[in-house]
Write a structure and sequence with these properties.
Layout (H helix, E strand, L loop, with lengths): L2 E5 L2 E3 L5 E8 L7 E7 L6 E7 L5 E3 L7 E6 L4 E6 L8 E8 L22 E5 L2
Parallel strand pairs: 2-10
Antiparallel strand pairs: 1-3, 3-8, 4-5, 4-9, 5-6, 7-8, 9-10
Length: 128
């Protein structure tokens, strides 16, 4: 069974930065894509960014391009989401999950409805 733990959330002012971590234990990610989602109560879950474990290719939602960077540490089986220049509208609960697709994100878009193995989430608050 996949064990996923997100961490790194917190409270920042607009323009601030946070780095979220998503650690997987007892699970090989070689043939997977790992994605970050966010959800605000009462709103639909939104796919923010994802990374293909096979080649490190990445995908970003337009709302975070140029501000967020996703990366992976193969040795630690961990995916990070560096969030810079945070805006009030970035405030949400952030979750990571996996898509069982190894194909490079240079060749496709993620299928957000196919992501599974969710963690418990980490909360990001952005306020002045």
């Amino acid at each position: 069974q996949v064990h996923v733990v997100e961490s790194g959330g917190g409270s920042v002012q607009p323009g601030g930065s946070l780095r979220l971590s998503c650690a997987f234990s007892e699970f090989r990610l070689d043939y997977y894509t790992v994605g970050w989602f966010r959800q605000v109560p009462g709103k639909e879950r939104e796919g923010v960014s994802c990374i293909s474990w096979s080649d490190g290719s990445t995908w970003y939602a337009d709302s975070v391009k140029g501000r967020f960077t996703i990366s992976r540490d193969n040795a630690k089986n961990t995916v990070y989401l560096q969030m810079n220049n945070l805006k009030i509208e970035d405030a949400a609960d952030y979750y990571c999950a996996t898509e069982q697709v190894a194909l490079s994100l240079k060749l496709r878009d993620p299928h957000w409805n196919d992501f599974t193995s969710w963690g418990q989430g980490t909360q990001v608050t952005v306020s002045s």
